[in-house]
From TrEMBL:
Residues 1-215 are annotated as: Phosphopantothenoylcysteine decarboxylase. The gene is coaBC. Pathway: Cofactor biosynthesis; coenzyme A biosynthesis; CoA from (R)-pantothenate: step 2/5; Cofactor biosynthesis; coenzyme A biosynthesis; CoA from (R)-pantothenate: step 3/5. Its EC number is 4.1.1.36, 6.3.2.5. CTP binds at D307, K317, P335, D336, V337, L338, F355, K373, K377. It comes from Nocardioides perillae. This is Coenzyme A biosynthesis bifunctional protein CoaBC. Residues 211-429 form the DNA/pantothenate metabolism flavoprotein C-terminal domain. Gene3D superfamilies: CoaB-like (3.40.50.10300), Flavin prenyltransferase-like (3.40.50.1950).
C-alpha cells in the first residue's frame, strides 16, 4: 500500500454536529478488501461512528474479528443477526453516508437493479443519505457493457460511483480497475458528508453530480526553472489543493484535466493528468487542454508558476568559488498564464479562477494585495490564502477568502482542502447559473 505522508493527520469529523457522523462501510468480496481496513482506521480515528457491513464473500478476504476490532462494533453480513433490531432497515435509515469499498461488479449490478439478498444490499435500498460506491475489479469486468450500464443507471439516480484507478491488479495484470488509495476515498467521503451537513441538498444525492456535462481544467503544484543540471528555482507548493479541486470536480460529474507540476501525489481517480515541470510547459498544457473539445467551461489555476526563470541554463553544475564569492544570477520574467487565459477565454462563458498566496506588508493587507491582483489578472474569482509564516503549503487543511470580480467576498473557514474545493466549485456553478438564459 502506498505510504501517505499525511496518514497520521486524520481529518476531523464534521463540525457543528451534535453527534459523530454515522458511516456505513460496506465491503465487497474482492482482494482490495484489505485496503478498506486503512479506510476504516481513518474514519474511526477522526471521530466518526462506523458500522462495517461486509458481504459473505468479503469475509473470505478479511475476517469479521478484524472489522470488529477496528470498528469497535460487532459485524454481521446477514439479515438474521440481531433480527429483533431490524438491522436491514435501521442501519441504512440512520446512516449519514453509505460507502462501499470495494464495490465489485456483482454489487454494482445488485445496487442498480434493487436486489437485496444480504445485509449490505438491504442497507443500500434503505439509505436516505449520500451513497458512495468505489469499484474495484479486473479491467475487462469494468469495461463490460453490463457494468457500464449499471454505473450509468446508478449515477443517474444520484449515487456517486468513483472511477477506479489504473495500476497493478491481481496477479500480473495491470489496467483500470484498481481501488483508489484510501486517502483519496476518505477525502471524497468526508467532502460528501460535509456537503450533506451544510444543507446543500446533497443528502440524498440529488445534486451531487451537478457538474455533469462540464469540461474543466485544473492546474496544481509548483513549477521549477532549471539553473544547472542539479539546481532549480521553485516554490513550496505541494499540489494538494489543486488535486482536491480536480477530485471534487470529478466526483461532481465533470470531465477533468489536471495539469500537475512536480507533484508526488497519486493520480485522482477519473481525472486525466498531464505532467509538466516548467512554467513554459505548464502554459502550453493548460492552453491545449482549455482550448480542446470546444473550450473548457472553467479553468482553475491552483498551481504556483515561478514568476521568473534564469536567463540562461548552465550546461554543467555551477561550482563553488575558492574565494567564497557567489555567481550572479540574471532572471527573466515568465509568461503570466492566468492573465493570458482570462484575457483570451477558451470559449464564451469560460469561468477563470486564480489563486493568490499573499502576505501583508507596509503597502497593504493580504486582501488589499489580493483585490489588486484580481483586477490585474482579469479572472472571475480569486482564492486568497494568507501564507504568512508558511501557512497552507503542504498542510492537509486550508482556509481562504473567495473574491469575486462582481465585488463579492466569501470567507471559507478552516477545514479540509476538499471542503475548500467544493466551495470553489459552488461559486463556479453559481457563475454558470447566472449566465444561463432565463428558463434554461
Amino acid at each position: 500500500m502506498t505510504h501517505d505522508p499525511h496518514a497520521d493527520q486524520a481529518a476531523p469529523a464534521p463540525t457543528g454536529a451534535a453527534r459523530p457522523a454515522r458511516v456505513v462501510l460496506g465491503v465487497g468480496g474482492g482482494i482490495a478488501a484489505y485496503k478498506s481496513c486503512e479506510l476504516l482506521r481513518r474514519f474511526t480515528e477522526s471521530g466518526h461512528d462506523v458500522t462495517v457491513v461486509p458481504t459473505a464473500s468479503a469475509l473470505e478476504f478479511v475476517g469479521a474479528p478484524t472489522w470488529a476490532a477496528l470498528s469497535g462494533k460487532p459485524v454481521a453480513s446477514d439479515v438474521w443477526t440481531s433480527v429483533h433490531e431490524v438491522p436491514h432497515v435501521r442501519i441504512g435509515q440512520q446512516a449519514d453516508l453509505v460507502l462501499v469499498a470495494p464495490a465489485t461488479a456483482d454489487l454494482l449490478a445488485k445496487a442498480a437493479h434493487g436486489l437485496a439478498d444480504d445485509l449490505l444490499t438491504n442497507t443500500l435500498l434503505t439509505a436516505r443519505c449520500p451513497v458512495l460506491l468505489v469499484p474495484a475489479m479486473h479491467t475487462e469486468m469494468w469495461e463490460h457493457p453490463a457494468t457500464a450500464a449499471n454505473v450509468e443507471l446508478l449515477r443517474s439516480r444520484g449515487t456517486v460511483v468513483l472511477e477506479p484507478a489504473e495500476g497493478r491488479l491481481t496477479g500480473s495484470d495491470t489496467g483500470k480497475g484498481r481501488l483508489p488509495e484510501p486517502a483519496d476515498v476518505f477525502e471524497v467521503a468526508t467532502g460528501l458528508l460535509a456537503r450533506a451537513g451544510a444543507g446543500t441538498g446533497a443528502r440524498r444525492g440529488e445534486d451531487v453530480r451537478d457538474l455533469r456535462g462540464r469540461r474543466v481544467v485544473v492546474s496544481a503544484g509548483g513549477t521549477r526553472e532549471p539553473l544547472d543540471p542539479v539546481r532549480f528555482l521553485g516554490n513550496r507548493s505541494s499540489g494538494l489543493q489543486g488535486y482536491a479541486l480536480a477530485r471534487a470536480a470529478a466526483v461532481r460529474g465533470a470531465e477533468v484535466v489536471l495539469v500537475a507540476a512536480n507533484t508526488e501525489l497519486a493520480d485522482p481517480a477519473g481525472v486525466r493528468v498531464v505532467r509538466v515541470a516548467t512554467t513554459g510547459e505548464l502554459r502550453a498544457a493548460v492552453l491545449d487542454a482549455a482550448r480542446g473539445g470546444g473550450g473548457a467551461d472553467a479553468v482553475v489555476m491552483a498551481a504556483a508558476p515561478a514568476d521568473f526563470r534564469p536567463a540562461s541554463q548552465v550546461a554543467t553544475k555551477i561550482k563553488k568559488a575558492d574565494d567564497g564569492s557567489a555567481p550572479s544570477l540574471a532572471l527573466v520574467q515568465n509568461p503570466d498564464v492566468l492573465a493570458e487565459v482570462a484575457a483570451d477565454r477558451p470559449a464564451p462563458g469560460t469561468v477563470v479562477v486564480g489563486f493568490a498566496a499573499e502576505t501583508g506588508d507596509a503597502a497593504g493587507s493580504v486582501l488589499d494585495h489580493a483585490r489588486a491582483k484580481l483586477a490585474r489578472k482579469g479572472c472571475d474569482l480569486l482564492v486568497v490564502n494568507d501564507v504568512s509564516g508558511g501557512a497552507v503549503f503542504g498542510e492537509p487543511d486550508n482556509e481562504a477568502v473567495l473574491l469575486g470580480a462582481d465585488g463579492s467576498t466569501t470567507a471559507v473557514a478552516r477545514g479540509s482542502k476538499a471542503l475548500l474545493a467544493h466551495a470553489v466549485w459552488d461559486r463556479v456553478r453559481a457563475h454558470w447559473d447566472a449566465a444561463a438564459p432565463t428558463g434554461a
